[in-house]
Specification:
With 482 residues, the protein is mainly α. It is built from 28 helices and no strands.
Length: 482
């Protein structure tokens, strides 16, 4: 229970008490390792998992945890050995197979990644995770029909399974098979046992019906969701949005007011009212609604919406003050701190943004956005830490075009590896050809490495496109020099 609540110190105290009573318990050493992991004490976590295995060499949970710890420590060969040992003992262990798939993917072995996922799916047809990963990979490559096929396999192996039907319906929507998706979600609704689950099913059905241009049926489904679960915020927001898209502002307002009347102490109705007012550019009124929501149930979502409304109402200083006060009072609220860092970055407050990202990384060392953006900020001040952070981000997400752009640009600007940076920027441009910043960086790198013709072509395309980007004047000057 303490581990589940992330109360690691209390968990550790209880575990150590139990170990005195049960010194030969692999379970309690495994729990101890988990507690130390929560405290980010990797050394003691490793010793605990090793002790569990010393007591029982066939103890699978401890071996899996030790393998996962080795992954965090970037000891991939040691991690692979642990997972293979598990598979030698239990050839159908899905968790070990998924870890092996992850290792293959990280090393660029997409064939191996696919094979491990297929093995996991065939060995454990009742588990949706392997099929889900395979489907998402096919979607990322534009193979929507292939993704649907994976989902159909999952549904076939799990007849009547709500999660499998939900997976299939979502893949059908991605493939624009809207009528099929509507039928799948209707079947999902029939399978739900509780009112809350049924309400969620009706929301998914409504989304499919909207995609199928059947707004009237979608409205009925959303109303049904609210009848089953009157406090269902997502259904309320969807119904309000549907009314707004149909031009029925008064109807949307009636839905919100009815919700407020039914749940006067809930923040949800006032958040929805604020959203409605924001959509009508009634920013001052939206501020009041979000204030009402915060006075009832203070939340990260509420403070973010309030900040946006105050900013749109021309009260930027007050907006920033309220956001900073919230982060100061809730130092562990990572989402709010990340939002504050983004606002500082957009406003050109580089020092403040860097400070927020540094604090984020202290609490979440693998926060990809914080790593990438802080590397970018360090590069602006020629801080040598930039390349280290950019490389960490790249290891976490090697296919992310923004991450590739940051690392490539730092390599080019810092003259550490201009050719390597050029290659990185080329990959980023191919992955995100529509992002002008990335194309600009690639053009600059081409010019630096002597390929002036292609650099000029890219810059000309950017300038002729009419798309605004921060380096527009710089691009004009580079064109002139070239």
């Amino acid at each position: 229970t303490y581990l589940g609540k992330h109360d690691y110190q209390k968990a550790l105290a209880e575990i150590q008490h139990q170990l005195k009573l049960h010194p030969q318990s692999a379970d309690f050493y495994n729990f101890q390792g988990a507690a130390y992991l929560g405290l980010n004490d990797l050394t003691h976590a490793e010793k605990s998992f090793e002790q569990a295995l010393a007591l029982d060499a066939h103890y699978v949970p401890g071996r899996l945890n030790l393998g996962e710890l080795y992954l965090q420590l970037r000891r991939t060969d040691a991690a692979r050995q642990q997972f293979q040992t598990v598979l030698d003992q239990d050839p159908k262990n899905e968790q070990a197979m998924l870890f092996m798939a992850g290792l293959a993917q990280a090393s660029g072995d997409l064939k191996g990644w696919n094979e491990w996922l297929e093995k996991a799916a065939q060995a454990n047809p009742g588990d949706l995770r392997p099929r889900l990963q395979l489907a998402q990979e096919k979607l990322s490559k534009g193979d929507a029909k292939g993704a649907v096929k994976e989902a159909e396999e999952a549904a076939k192996s799990n007849p009547g399974n709500v999660a499998a039907l939900d997976f299939l319906g979502s893949m059908q929507l991605q493939a624009k098979m809207t009528k099929d998706a509507v039928q799948t979600f209707k079947e999902e609704v029939d399978q739900h046992q509780s009112p809350t689950q049924s309400a969620q099913g009706y929301l998914h059905l409504a989304i499919a019906q909207v995609a199928d241009s059947d707004n009237l049926s979608a409205e009925v489904s959303l109303q049904r969701a609210l009848d089953l679960s009157p406090g269902y915020a997502d259904a309320l927001a969807a119904l309000m949005t549907l009314d707004l898209k149909s031009g029925h502002v008064d109807k949307a307002s009636e839905v919100v007011m009815a919700y407020q009347a039914k749940f006067p102490r809930s923040a949800i109705g006032f958040l929805a009212q604020g959203d409605l007012e924001m959509s009508q550019k009634q920013y001052t009124e939206a501020v009041k609604s979000y204030e009402q929501a915060q006075s009832r149930e203070p939340s990260t979502l509420g403070i973010v919406k309030l900040h946006d409304a105050l900013s749109q109402a021309g009260q930027e200083k007050q907006a920033d003050q309220r956001l900073e006060q919230w982060v100061g009072a809730h130092p562990s609220d990572m989402a709010a701190r990340s939002y504050l860092a983004t606002m500082d970055l957009r406003a050109g407050r580089d020092r403040d943004a860097a400070e927020q990202y540094q604090q984020l990384l202290q609490r979440a060392p693998n926060d990809l956005t914080a790593l990438n953006n802080l590397a970018w900020l360090y590069q602006r001040t020629h801080d040598s830490r930039a390349i280290v952070l950019a490389q960490r981000a790249y290891k976490l997400s090697p296919d992310n075009p923004q991450v590739m752009d940051t690392l490539g640009w730092i390599m080019v600007q810092g003259q550490t590896d201009v050719q390597g940076g050029l290659g990185m920027l080329k990959k980023a441009t191919e992955a995100a050809p529509q992002v002008p910043d990335i194309r600009f960086h690639y053009a600059v790198a081409l010019a630096k490495t002597g390929d002036k013709t292609e650099a000029k072509d890219i810059l000309k395309q950017l300038l002729d496109s009419g798309v605004a980007f921060p380096q527009k004047e710089e691009a004009k000057q580079i064109m002139k020099n070239l």
